[in-house]
Amino acid sequence: MRTKNAFYAQSGGVTSVIxxxxxxxxxxxxxxxxxxxxxxxGLNGIIGALTEDLIDTSAExxxxxxxxxxxxxxxxxxxxxxxxxxxxNRREYERLIxxxxxxxxxxxxxxxxxxxxxxxxxxxxxxxxxxxxxxxxHIPKTVDNDLPITDNCPGFGSVAKYIAVSALEASFDVRSxxxxxxxxxxLEVMGRHAGWIAAAGGxxxxxxxxxxxxxxxxxxxxxxxxxxxxxxxxTHGYCTIVVSEGAKYADGTFLAEQGSRDSFGHAQLGGVxxxxxxxxxxxxxYKFHWAVADYLQRAARHLAxxxxxxxxxxxxxxxxxxxxxxKNSIMxxxxxxxxxxxxxxxxxxxxxxxxxxxxxxxxxxxSADGFGITEACKEYLYxxxxxxxxxxxxxxxxxKYIVLDNPQIDKKLGAFEL
Length: 418
Hints:
The relative contact order is 0.18. Helix content is 33%, strand content 18%. By secondary structure, the protein is of the alpha/beta class. It has helices spanning 18-30, 46-50, 62-67, 90-102, 114-126, 156-177, 196-201, 222-236, 272-284, 294-299, 306-324, 375-381, and strands at residues 5-10, 39-42, 54-56, 105-112, 135-140, 184-189, 211-214, 239-244, 257-261, 267-269, 288-292, 330-339, 342-350. The strands form 4 sheets. It has a 5-stranded mixed beta sheet, with helices on both faces. It has a 4-stranded parallel beta sheet with strand order 7-8-6-11, with helices on both faces. It folds into 2 domains: 5-142 and 304-356, Rossmann fold; 156-301, 3-Layer(aba) Sandwich (Rossmann fold), CATH 3.40.50.460.
């Protein structure tokens, strides 16, 4: 039988280290040409498989593939596209198998978060039933850090480092100006349902900075919030507020909900930072500034955590090794051995236990008043932001990020309407 080829795709919101996982997949596959043929990448994620837009990664040089390790965001393009169930849309699965058959693809590596874990699981379960077995391995990635079983998710450590450092630096600025100017700084961070990223902002409390964290896991009480802000400003002269985009009231309504939905059916959120800042202004009259980290937090490869980069690469590498061993329908995980010194190893989890499960902040990580983090949370977070992994810079002072050629192979099938 011919050596099977592999399909790799990036899914959902990209991170500063997702390309490190891609690097791990491609470099490892190239070391086993007798087991895995060509690694095809999907142009814009799983959509590339459906539309047969397949990138031939073998056409890229060894140097360019290695440069992925230091380049942020998705080198092959990502997408927000969730396959429906087989019952609801059989044609999508039939198309996937048709494309895989046409290009002799027997390995499916899907690099993403919760929704891509669900897609990967469906493919792993249904491909054999549809007459073409495909080994499906999910490579974890999400800045939200909300996948179960794994200790943490690649992408999160670097976002946490960026938010902690940015909140710290901005707070130093506010402290300098608070006597006659700004007294409240509000930083909005990602995290729809889980407050892991917001928790990272709480680390600045170790610098004696008065900080409040608004978690999705803690129902927002405006009266209690305003009273806490007032007390901090009267005591310290200023305060910093780190708010998750998913902060919500007791009835489940997001503070920044717009009333619309995205392609996954999630509530479309606006800016929660100005909402919170204006509450403070209207109630207390304090001058404020607010900022939304948005894409900056997840694209900031210049401030990536070394441990995050190493783990992202390792998970891509191990995914290929697991596939070669014949494994299917699993996700490699990060298992923490100790926090000090920080030690970890790679494990694995069945996709049936991962798909459609979200990991929230545990109660013991949130302070009793609901506005901060505990020592246990700090012990968890600090190792994940540990170390630096700076990209190389050119003589102009700009980072040496790679842009791949991404040559596509010839199509063998007819067009497919999404």
